[in-house]
Design a protein that fits this description.
The protein is an alpha/beta fold. The chain contains eight helices and six strands, in the order ααββααβαβαββαα.
């Protein structure tokens, strides 16, 4: 049976390869954060989300414990997602600037959003083994998103995973706005991750983030 993004999503949601991550995501889903105590948490692996004909693939680190691990959609229900989808909205990639839950009407055009690791890791730090267990899902998505021309890496962890996938030697340095040529005229484009640590300190501003997505659209043609 041929592979599909739907099959990848099903496999991600049912995955239990990493005992530590399974235990953590389910513990968070049971205990919940007080402000979300009346919500049912997703508490599983989080699939990618977006346009199957995307020319842009956006790759993050992993689901947030009370964001995508709660809502079941990448970069949804937390401040990092607020930053991401505002930037995508301003650059014409999303139909609305907010992403609160799976049924909120958000639609992405010409872009697909995913992550290197699909389960929320404690302290946002997956182990190398957990990273490697998740790598086949990203590999399958890259293979299926045949029209992708630009790979936007949100943070050094995502960039290193993409560099590993494309077997780049020597490993390119990560930096905000750094462009790395890939085979077939494609491009790896780096961006600081829209984490609170980066946005609260001013390391990443909305102007800087918008510039990355404008450039991504230019590169995608």
């Amino acid at each position: 049976m041929p592979d599909s993004l739907q099959r990848v999503a099903q496999d991600v949601a049912s995955c239990r390869r990493c005992p530590r991550l399974v235990e953590w995501r389910e513990q968070v889903a049971r205990e919940k954060r007080a402000m979300f105590r009346d919500e049912e948490y997703w508490g599983r692996g989080v699939p990618g989300f977006g346009d199957p004909a995307a020319r842009l693939l956006v790759v993050g680190l992993a689901p947030a414990a009370h964001g995508a691990n709660r809502t079941g959609r990448m970069f949804t229900g937390d401040r990092s997602g607020d930053w991401l989808y505002r930037a995508m909205y301003r650059t014409g990639l999303a139909n609305q600037p907010t992403s609160e839950h799976r049924g909120d009407g958000l639609h992405i055009q010409d872009a697909y959003v995913t992550a290197a690791v699909r389960c929320a890791p404690p302290d946002n730090k997956p182990t190398p083994a957990e990273r490697d267990n998740c790598a086949p899902y990203l590999e399958r998505e890259i293979a299926l998103l045949e029209q992708a021309r630009v790979y936007v890496a949100l943070g050094s962890f995502a960039a290193s995973n993409l560099a590993r996938h494309f077997a780049l030697r020597p490993r390119p340095r990560f930096g905000h706005g750094v462009e790395v040529p890939l085979p077939g005229g494609r491009t790896l484009l780096g961006s600081y991750h829209p984490s609170q640590r980066n946005t609260f300190t001013g390391l990443l501003t909305e102007e800087m983030f918008d510039a990355v997505f404008r450039r991504a659209r230019e590169l995608a043609g």
